[in-house]
Amino acid sequence: MNFIINLLISALVVFALSNVMPGVAISGYGSAIIVALVIGFLTAFVRPILGILTLPINILTLGLFSFVITAIIILLASAIMGDSFHVDGFWYAMLFGVVLGIVNSIVGGLFGGD
């Protein structure tokens, strides 16, 4: 049950950010749910691989390269979703990922997410 609530909250945040940010477009709330699932899947399976491959750069930049990995995950989600979810470029993807992470952390903390 907690997974469904977190998914719906993430979808709501994705939908709200797409309406606020100029470089992000989404076709509807149903697409936002799918985008939240795709981002969650990519974060669970692709991010650890990218983290291992870029470990030396991440150490040299004191962890700041993880923002680049987040932007890559968002751009991959945009490529997978096609016309339903579109991010204009790398910087919009980085900003979207950072804001999405911050808002999800705040909302998860408020609702006692695991």
TrEMBL record:
The chain crosses the membrane at residues 32-50, 57-78, 90-111. InterPro entries: Phage_holin_4_2. Keywords: Membrane, Transmembrane, Transmembrane helix. It comes from the Bacteria. Signal peptide: none annotated. This is Phage holin family protein.
